[in-house]
Amino acid sequence: MAAYVVSIARVDDWSESFQKYADLAADLTAKLGAEYVIRGEPITNCEGKIFDDRVLVISKWPSVDVAQSYWNSSEYQEKIKPLRDDTGIYDVAIFEEA
Asked: Does this model's pTM top 0.90?
């Protein structure tokens, strides 16, 4: 069953380091057979405040196991994720498809 990695982020520093993070994360995502479903700011915030000044990223993965292996991989945790240190606030979760 497919899985989704969902991230709601407030990016405060769109630095070169953050841009490199985004590029490398996208490369690893594609390499593992996943694709981005949503990657950006809302067009319209219909209700509530959770999306004020936030970016939503949703990627679809072949399975929960593949999504978790991405998140737990040394490539992501040690080489890619540190590039976004001190650039914002990130809330990330993995969901199984309904």
From this structure: yes
Q: In whole angstroms, how large is the CA radius of gyration of the chain? A: 13
User: Torsions phi, psi of 83, nearest 5?
Assistant: -65, -20
Decide the pairing of beta strands 55-61 and 35-40: antiparallel
Q: What is the dihedral of CA 75, 62, 91, 7, to 10 degrees?
A: 100
- φ, ψ for residue 93 (rounded to 5)? -145, 155
Q: Of 2, 67, 1, 58, nearest to 28 (Cα)?
A: 67
Per residue in 18-68, pLDDT tens? 999 999 999 999 999 999 999 999 999 999 999 999 999 999 999 999 999
State phi, psi for 97 to the nearest 5 degrees. -65, 145
